[in-house]
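Let us walk through a complete example step by step. Step one is to write down the protein sequence. Step two is to encode the small molecule, flavin-adenine dinucleotide, as a SMILES string so that its atoms and bonds are unambiguous. Step three, shown after the inputs, is the structure prediction itself.
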Amino acid sequence: MKILVTVKLVPDTTADKRIDPATKQLVRSGVETVLNPFDEYAIEAGLQLKEKIGGDTTVTIVTMAPESGKEIVRKALAMGADDAIMISDPKAEGSDVWGTAYALAQAIKKNGFDLVLCGTQSTDSITGELPGALAEFLGVPGITHARKLEVEGTTVRAERETDNGYAKVTADLPLLVSVTKSMNTPRYPALKGIMGAKKKTIAIASLADSGVDKPVGHEGARTELIDLVSPPTRGKGEVFQAADAVAGATKIIEFLRERKLV
Ligand SMILES: Cc1cc2nc3c(=O)[nH]c(=O)nc-3n(C[C@H](O)[C@H](O)[C@H](O)COP(=O)(O)OP(=O)(O)OC[C@H]3O[C@@H](n4cnc5c(N)ncnc54)[C@H](O)[C@@H]3O)c2cc1C
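Step three: the predicted structure of the complex.
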């Protein structure tokens, strides 16, 4: 079984982020790049399936990112993935969700797949739209926000997180699933994995090599970022003075009732 895991390279979540006022894009240079933390759950899900299913099951990492991020991809290989495909091409710069999903889909189709696993969202653009768009381009069903995943033969059973609980869904392979943080605890790469990852293949492919035959990047972007604004600063909170806890709680409940919040 061929499992492919999409992985985004993002600026370190804890780093100060800056938007370039001219391009309105995130300044990525000078900021440490890491694996999108949400994608570690998808990698772990792929590795657990490989361990369970066995046989000739493989886990391949797929990313669209500059070649300079190659060593970050090795972390996914050190966790236990078999190999990686990296779409690296200057013409990919400026790709919006449409362009990113289209390019990834072409590379995934070219490689062949049974199951594609994604994180639920990135920590930089955070649209959460890519998995749905990718499933559409691949022409397969997409189960998003899965917290549990089982594969038996060609049948996939999953639990999707919803606002009020979860929904049980089944579908047949080939399929795409996006994985939430509730699914597992990603493993730390062990020393043996780190050493072994050095010998694993990271295949660098241009857009043309990946079978991308439509413009992506700035040229193909169908989305235009019109403006970026900071959220309004919060007003001061209201402090209640009360003689005791009961009087304090009563005041708070009255305050919330007036605003129809309880
Ligand atoms: C006009 C425009 C220009 C842009 N220019 C750039 C740019 O130059 N560089 C840039 O990095 N971003 C750019 N972006 C942002 C880019 O569109 C998004 O990062 C991308 O479409 C993925 O969306 P997301 O990050 O919100 O992913 P989400 O949908 O939040 O991510 C969900 C999952 O999709 C997968 N995924 C997302 N992106 C990738 C990827 N690249 N490779 C593999 N898997 C992935 C991961 O598994 C991730 O967990 C641009 C956006 C716009 C609108």
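Step four is interpretation. The chain has a mean pLDDT of 95.
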